[in-house]
TrEMBL record:
Name assigned to this protein: ABC transporter related protein
Database matches in PROSITE patterns: ABC_TRANSPORTER_1, ABC_TRANSPORTER_2
Transmembrane annotation, as ranges: none
InterPro entries: AAA+_ATPase, ABC_SmlMolc_Importer, ABC_transporter-like_ATP-bd, ABC_transporter-like_CS, ABC_transpr_FbpC, P-loop_NTPase
Coiled-coil regions, chain positions: none
Top-rank lineage group of the source organism: Bacteria
Cellular component terms (Gene Ontology): membrane
A GO term for molecular function: ATP binding
Record-annotated ABC transporter domain positions: 13-245
Pfam families (UniProt xref): ABC_tran
Length: 245
């Protein structure tokens, strides 16, 4: 357990999440963790253990239930030294890629990818130009005018990834983006994500149920069980028995 890096002030970590708390029926999550800048962290754990909930709390898509009133457990989420605990999702500077690509069905690929740029005030023509150029990095050259319904599962996820990355978020959260793909394509896209993470230098956190995938992708693995992080450390030290013991 010496690899554990949870709680405290994060020791200069890029992401510091202290006293995250979430209640839903009989499920309760209470966890703290931190991640270094420019690294990929994979979160593993049994189904229903709170993996996706952790991401949604970081992104601001779920409300932390920790009150911090007299119990000494005040929630704090800091990204790059900035406290984002009370900021809405759009103000946190976080990108998110989901299991489903969630592309806008009425927009072609270039308009989907450039959507974030347009929200930043960049015109449609310039946004499409940047999108077309950016798509080349995802083996999607010439896909700009394709509609989402014409894409394969792997192509759609590449487009979703491009849409997230084009606005250059420093932190990207991946909620099992490869789980619906077949094994060969899953392995290929995992390698592509890792290569992009290293070349672009963003900090990534990925939820996955595939332990071999986590070992391949991650600089650090977090194991969560019953809403509590029980282990964090390098992939080489991870034991699969942590999932059940």
């Amino acid at each position: 357990m010496e690899e554990m890096r949870t709680g405290g002030n994060g020791g200069g970590m890029f992401l510091v999440a202290e006293n995250l708390s979430f209640d839903c029926g009989n499920f309760r999550l209470e966890s703290s963790f931190s991640c270094a800048r420019g690294t990929m962290t994979c979160i593993v754990g049994p189904s229903g253990s709170g993996k996706s909930t952790l991401l949604r709390l970081i992104a601001g898509l779920e409300r932390n239930s920790a009150k911090g009133a007299g119990d000494g457990k005040k929630t704090r989420i800091a990204i790059g030294g900035k406290d984002v605990t009370n900021l809405p999702p759009a103000k946190r500077g976080v990108g998110m890629v989901f299991q489903k690509s969630n592309l806008f069905p009425h927009m072609d690929v270039a308009d989907n990818v450039s959507y974030g740029l347009r929200c930043m005030g960049i015109g449609r023509k310039e946004g499409r130009r940047r999108a077309e150029e950016f798509l080349e990095s995802f083996n999607l050259s010439g896909f700009g005018k394709r509609m989402p319904e014409t894409l394969s599962g792997g192509e759609a996820q590449r487009v979703a990834l491009a849409r997230t990355l084009i606005v250059h978020p420093e932190l990207i959260l991946f909620d099992e983006p490869l789980s619906a793909l077949d094994a060969p394509l899953r392995k290929k896209l995992a390698a592509e994500i890792r290569a992009l993470q290293k070349s672009l230098g963003f900090t990534g956190i990925m939820v996955t149920h595939d332990i071999s995938e986590a070992r391949t992708l991650a600089d650090s693995i977090i194991c969560i069980r019953n809403g509590t992080i029980i282990w964090q450390g390098p992939p080489k030290n991870f034991r699969e028995t942590l999932l059940t013991e």
